[in-house]
């Protein structure tokens, strides 16, 4: 009688108050940019307005936590939570097994984000939160590097974890205790691309073309086109293949749209921009509203003294200082590693006014010149053939911090729904 009359109103208030409670609780986790005018896609409550309202932001009691800005602190008591025996390792990144020098020190640096309390992942709590859910990474080998770190960390909470490779996944893991799947789909350019050896293709006006890589800017690669509705969380990236080392002049990328070559032919960065715009609009169209979507910004490379194929090296034993970063990465200084910030600029532009959240791991990673596999690649002659690896990361290592940040953001994203 009385109770049944009251309950709808009571229920509304209860939900509203719960939302407010979570907003306060999780605002201490908020990465800075998420308070920008871009609305969180899944926010349906009045909080949407309060988040957008700068006056409320200013009245907010605690300073805004920014997971992407901060500094690395040496903390000898800090330990990775997995070792060289994780079954998900890829040999070339398993720096403990490959006996890389300095591993203990590499993993004694802790990322301390500005104005945040501890953000380290709790694998049990995280898997519990993700129960019956699926997380998908889509992109290039740096997203695979990210995935391997994620799988090794989560496995600590479920030793029964199994390899998982379905639906076109390149690799992945299944956590039976929690019914959680985490996998990676390899799509280095995101768009579909194919090798065409035909001689008659002379679209770039160049001599001595061996053939071209045809990129269909408006068609997503087969590897992920079928899984847009399969995952609850998606993490995209592209960037490391958009360079002349992967696609030199004799075998260039040639961009097509609606089945026809784009004329005049696009340069590689204009091609990237076109692909980004088209893939982002595809994601907005095809990926369901409730899916959490992230875009990971570039992982910086650290080649010193030469490019990767010119004896470029990264034998450093501590992180860079903040005031060294621009010398290494500012495009105006045209160093070997300048492309990360250039590519980021294009990505940020393409993601404006979308509900895809930026995972800006570039800055924190720029410091870590000391944490690549370098010459310890686990294979004889690998360095002579491939050069040092100053691009991927040792595991355990920097991507573990990426996992801490991503998991905090997923946590927050799911709680707010
Ligand atoms: C951290 O908090 C201080 C004090 O509120 C603020 O001035 C600063 O901008 C914050 N830092 C970041 C990166 O948000
Ligand atoms: C596992 O999760 C999927 C959704 O990701 C669900 O369809 C399936 O029923 C779950 N299985 C069990 C055994 O709970
Ligand atoms: C390609 O076109 C350029 C200019 O249009 C021409 O100079 C060159 O000879 C052509 N190359 C081939 C292999 O046909
Ligand atoms: C790289 O180093 C090797 C051995 O020191 C040397 O023979 C070679 O010329 C170097 N290559 C470049 C591009 O500098």
Automatic annotation (TrEMBL):
Keyword Transmembrane helix in record: yes
Presence of the UniProt keyword Transmembrane helix in the record: yes
Domain Trichome birefringence-like N-terminal: 65-116
Entries under InterPro entries matching the protein: TBL, TBL_C, TBL_N
One GO term describing the cellular component: membrane
Subcellular location: Membrane
Membrane topology: Single-pass membrane protein
Main location as per UniProt: membrane
Domain Trichome birefringence-like C-terminal: 120-409
GO molecular function: O-acetyltransferase activity
Keywords: Membrane, Signal-anchor, Transmembrane, Transmembrane helix
Family label: Belongs to the PC-esterase family. TBL subfamily.
Record protein name field: Protein trichome birefringence-like 12
Organism taxonomic ancestry: Eukaryota, Viridiplantae, Streptophyta, Embryophyta, Tracheophyta
């Amino acid at each position: 009688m009385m109770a049944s009359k009251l309950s709808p109103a009571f229920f509304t208030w209860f939900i509203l108050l719960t939302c407010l409670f979570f907003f306060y609780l999780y605002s201490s986790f908020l990465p800075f940019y998420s308070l920008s005018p871009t609305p969180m896609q899944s926010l349906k409550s009045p909080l949407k307005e309060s988040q957008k309202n700068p006056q409320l932001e200013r009245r907010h009691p605690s300073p805004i936590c920014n997971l992407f800005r901060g500094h690395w602190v040496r903390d000898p008591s800090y330990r990775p939570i997995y070792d060289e025996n994780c079954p998900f390792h890829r040999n070339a990144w398993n720096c403990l097994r490959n006996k890389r020098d300095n591993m203990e020190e590499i993993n004694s640096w802790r990322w301390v984000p500005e104005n945040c309390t501890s953000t380290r992942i709790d694998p049990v709590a995280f898997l519990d939160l993700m129960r019956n859910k699926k997380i998908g990474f889509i992109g290039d080998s740096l997203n695979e590097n990210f995935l391997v770190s994620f799988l090794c960390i989560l496995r600590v909470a479920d030793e029964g974890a199994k390899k998982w490779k379905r639906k076109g996944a390149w690799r992945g893991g299944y956590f039976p205790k929690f019914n959680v799947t985490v996998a990676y789909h390899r799509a280095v350019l995101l768009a579909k691309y194919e090798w065409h050896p035909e001689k008659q293709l002379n679209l770039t006006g160049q001599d001595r073309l061996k053939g071209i890589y045809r990129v269909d800017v408006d068609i997503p690669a087969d590897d992920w086109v079928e899984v847009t509705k399969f995952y609850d969380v998606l993490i995209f990236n592209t960037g490391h293949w958009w360079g002349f080392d992967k696609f030199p002049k004799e075998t260039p990328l040639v961009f097509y749209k609606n089945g026809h070559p784009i004329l005049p032919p696009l340069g590689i960065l204009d091609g990237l921009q076109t692909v980004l715009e088209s893939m982002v609009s595809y994601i907005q169209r095809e990926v369901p509203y409730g899916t959490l979507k992230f875009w990971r910004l570039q992982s910086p490379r650290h080649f010193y003294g030469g490019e990767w194929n010119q004896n470029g090296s990264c034998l450093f034993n501590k992180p860079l200082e903040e005031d060294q970063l621009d010398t290494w990465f500012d495009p105006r200084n045209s160093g070997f590693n300048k492309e990360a910030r250039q590519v980021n600029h294009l990505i940020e532009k393409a993601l404006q006014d979308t509900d895809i959240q930026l995972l800006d791991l570039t800055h924190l990673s720029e410091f870590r010149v000391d944490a690549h596999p370098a010459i310890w690649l686990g294979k004889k002659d690998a360095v002579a053939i491939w050069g040092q690896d100053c691009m991927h990361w040792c595991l355990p290592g920097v991507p573990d911090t990426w996992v801490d940040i991503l998991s905090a953001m997923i946590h927050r994203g799911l709680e707010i729904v």
